[in-house]
UniProtKB/TrEMBL annotation:
Species annotation: Paramixta manurensis
Pfam families on file: CdiI_2
InterPro entries hit by this protein: CdiI_2 (IPR041129)
Segments forming domain CdiI immunity protein: 6-94
UniProt name for this protein: CdiI immunity protein domain-containing protein
Amino acid sequence: MKRLNLNELGCFITIYFGQDYDLIDDSDEIEPKIDAFLQESHRANLYGLLADIDLLTDESDDLGAEFMERYGDEFDPELWGTTPAEFLQLVRDKVSYALRDEESR
């Protein structure tokens, strides 16, 4: 596996889905944590997160394995009822929608 520099994605997962995720939102749901990130982050962070997701998905030969190698100590999407690919697509969709919504105002 290539060692990609995915700082924004790493920070996002650690802060919003790591061991202290309940400080952000105490539910076991994924979307409220993404929504909190969207409310609290600068536009540049949103674009950085999208770029990191695209880089990981485009460059990975085995997305699930690479995701778990990088972030499995912090966050296992399967414990939240999803896969790494589905999780990343959900995050990508919500961030993209938020950016489009902001630009249309």
